[in-house]
Write a structure and sequence with these properties.
Strand content: 5-15%
Strand order of the largest sheet: 1-2-3-4-5-6-7-8
Radius of gyration: 17 Å
Number of strands: 8
Low-confidence stretches: none
Shape: globular
Helix content: 40-55%
Largest sheet: 8 strands, parallel, barrel
CATH topology: TIM Barrel
Number of helices: 8
Order of helices and strands: EHEHEHEHEHEHEHEH
Structural class: alpha/beta
Number of domains: 1
Amino acid sequence: MSIAVEIAVQDLAGLETAAAAGADRVELCTDLDRGGITPPPELVRACVERAAALVAARDAKPHFDVHVLIRCRAGEGDFLGRPAEFVYTDEEIELMAEQAAETVAAGAAGVVLGALTADGALDVPGLETIRDGALRAAQSAARGVTFTCHRAVDVLPDAAARAEAVTTLLGLGVHRVLSSGGAARALDGAADLALMVEAAEDLLEICAGGGVRPADVVPLVRATGVGSVHLSARTAGSSTTDPAVATAAVEAAGVL
């Protein structure tokens, strides 16, 4: 079993740390302390170019790449049980479609998106609009783009809704779903994550994220069957990516 490690970063230094640790990819955003928002195209381009240089110098895994969060406003703390955190106006959806297009045009390998309706279901039309913005930019660049749905799925009402969402997202062309299984910590949501993995039928990857620590990686993967894990690799009170934490997570994934 090969388990990928994704590190959430918000700058070039974080990307370099993740690459040196042996991570498979980064999720780039800014304002990570509040859940993250879409970084400017200039930062995306700089990170994409740096990632390519690290790969060329063999200072990163050959497939190391940059995925970018598409989120037009930051959060307000713990979002579990609050679908409003991911409910967007038509204008915000159009803005995120533009951000997705700019992000792909800047070279990002993938975008990370999510949107809900006021009653706590997936906002399928909104997701399609954001997706299509990225697809148009990818078509112009004559390349593909990977789609990840972020932890908005953790606000869905229960395990059955999350499993159903996996099927819906697969139909929308999403390649990966980031989730904690509806819990504050992914390890506590292991049962729900396992149901999502089952619903995916190996057609879509479930990535476990949410309070993940290096010591959680092995029991989390063994309990759920997820294909990858996501963490910020920061220590308490720090805004920077910690090399020791990132390396420990990668080493733990290598045991599996």
